[in-house]
Amino acid sequence: MRWDDAFVEHEGAVARLRFAQMAAALPRMVGVVLRAGWNADPRALAGVVTAQIGLGLTAAYGLVAVNGVLSKLFANGPAADKLQQAIPALAMLALVSVGTALLQAWSTAMSGRLEPQVERAVSTRYYRAVTQVEVVATEQPEIQRHLEAGRFGTDSARRMLSLSVSVANVVIGIVASAVVLASLHWALLPMLLVIALPKGWGAVRSARREHISRRHWIDHRRAVATLLQYLTLPHAAGEIRAHSAGSLLLRGYEEMSGLMETEQRRLARAQAHTDLVAGAFSGVAALGCYGMLWWLLTSGGLPIAVGGTAVVAMRASTGRLTSLVQQINLLYEEMLQLNDTEEATALAARHAIPRTGKPLPSPVRAIRVRDVSFTYPGATVPSLRSVDVSVRRGEVTALVGANGSGKSTLAKILGGLLLPSDGQVWWEGPAGERVEVREADRADVFRSVGLLTQDFPNWQMTAAANIAIGAGDRPRDMARVKEAARAADVDGLIEGLPHGWDSIVFKGYERGVQLSGGQWQKVGNARSRYRDAPFLLVDEPTSALDPHAEIEAFERLRTLADSGVAVVLITHRLAATASADHIYVLDHGRITEDGTHEQLMARPGGLYQGMFEAQAAQYGLTSSRGADIPAPWRGTAPDHKEETGRPL
Ligand SMILES: Nc1ncnc2c1ncn2[C@@H]1O[C@H](COP(=O)(O)OP(=O)(O)OP(=O)(O)O)[C@@H](O)[C@H]1O
Q: Which residues form the ABC transporter domain (predicted)?
């Protein structure tokens, strides 16, 4: 389950990334973090930067003070006098320590304030971009993987900020030491670099290796996480016990974890090898440096006090370098992850639903689908072929057909979620003025549509939120939430729950309750009603309802259509479609028949007639015209056509 295709492609890209390119990428990524910090809280960012510069200066003054103390101590004269003369330099050292502590505290307070804001800014930008991606783009596995990979870097921004602060701190300290060392003797500076380089090389190499590995195994990690999630999910609890699915899942987890452990072992071995090589080179370099210092001291090129300061500075700098290498290693790892998030955000923007477009006619009266074909990305056959459909306000339009015939795909085309591969979808106004969906303002399209998909989400939220989320672009209106719940016949149930509308409709939370499948479907119906849109697309809205609830639900849809809404009903319950104003029959992505129930039943050997009679036979009803079949709203709803007329 490794990310095979993308793995090869991605490995190449990362492997080609040379040290210089990575060194160039680091400031860019730190720039992303700093920009996010500046936009979120400029005062806190300015505080952190000032504190860091101050810390660099105190480090330099500290070394100057050490040099002052040592020069006095190594000068000629009685010990008491030398100590006396060293007092001002010692006082400066003490002052520098107090200053360092104060600046450190200030930096900690400011970066603590800044970090969560930076994380929020980067996360919000990423998640906003991801939720605006065209549905069809999310169907492409390589896009989906890149978008998914971006998720791991959202908190990297926070860690990068804290690491950048530490790195800046250490770098400023090292630069200060370097300046002081260079001013003592020019040859001391290259020594510092020679010690640092091998460790820097080792750190970058390890970080790259880990990152490449993480990218290869991204699908694997997702699968392992999903397996574990099933084990604790309440809705899977029954099957896990009754079908012994738990042991199967655990076995799968163990096998997959075993593979990951092998990879971890490989990484650990490679890292140990790199560390050894880097440590050996660094050790040899340190030996050479101290040898050179010895030579400078013995050949008289360096006074003994300066030699002492150099040893203090080099020891401090070597300590700082070791910490710098560790910090840069972490920083680099975080940078690669943040880079993934930035790339995912940019990719999402490239595949985003356009934000501009022509406004729809006001009011929209109909949607006309003309000669529309649609093929899902990666599919070899089209799911829709040259489809012509008209959906009018004030009517119930039914889509029927065998499994996989294209009904849900057509509903998504009607709702503007998918754009046709060929053909047009026109949104039409009262005087026949029209806008094609590709040119339309899609936000306007989405505002005009209420949608209940077959697999609508059961949000782990309160009952009220589960309905109000049907119109996430409007502030919650409890009166309308209750009205929508009443329209879906679920208000009584919710009000009877121990915490009423505030009950969390998911077991396992405090105030959590469990709803049945049919009750959930009513909540889903209420949600699409709350949308209050002129076009309502409902895909199998009654599949989990009992017979009475089902009949009532269809009657309510009829009433809704009579009030001027266009209802598009997808169902396999053909008794319900019998009263639809117009029925389209799909077969392998084509519309093979359309008309009223009576017209379709009058076509001997027709697909609709065959399906209807097959269902009727289950009830022992045999009429070939379906006259014996009680349509759910026959006789109960007013004659809507007479009452409302056909608007178009
Ligand atoms: N996301 C997708 N990616 C690729 N192919 C898809 C996708 N969704 C559906 N299909 C294919 O498109 C065809 C039509 O599917 P669709 O879901 O529209 O059928 P349907 O008529 O709604 O079926 P059902 O009655 O079973 O709900 C099927 O062959 C299906 O496999």
A: 367-613
Residue-level pLDDT at 366: 96
Residue 489 CA to its chain's centroid (Å) = 35
Q: Which atom of ligand 1 is nearest to the CA of 405?
A: 21
Q: Could you give the domains of the chain?
A: 4-350 (1.20.1560.10), 453-532 (3.40.50.300)
Token reading at 101: 């502590």
C-alpha distances (whole Å) from 109 to each of 162, 368, 493 are 12, 60, 50
Distance 6 CA to ligand 1 centre (A): 26
Residue 450: DSSP 8-state: E
User: 136: Cβ–Cβ under 8 A, 6 or more apart, which residues?
Assistant: 376, 377, 418, 419
Ligand 1 pocket test: which of 135, 374, 383 has the largest number of ligand atoms within 8 Å of its C-beta?
383
Place of tokens 């809280």: 41
**DSSP β-ladder status, 422-428 and 434-436:** antiparallel
Q: What is the pLDDT of residue 18?
A: 54
CA 536 to ligand 1 centroid distance, Å: 20
Q: Which run of H or E residues covers position 626?
A: none
- Asked if the ipTM is above 0.85, the reply is yes
Residues 6+ apart with CB under 8 A from 300: none
For residue 149, the one-letter residue type is: A
Banded pLDDT at 10 (limits 50, 70, 90): very low
Number of H helices, E strands in the chain: 23, 10
Please state, as a whole number, how many other Cβ atoms lie within 10 Å of the Cβ of residue 189: 16
Given the structure tokens 């001391």, which residue do they identify? 188
pTM of structure: 0.73
What is the per-residue pLDDT for 500? 92
Question: How many whole angstroms from 383 Cα to the centroid of ligand 1?
Answer: 7
Q: Is 249 left (phi over 0), alpha (psi -120 to 50) or beta?
A: alpha
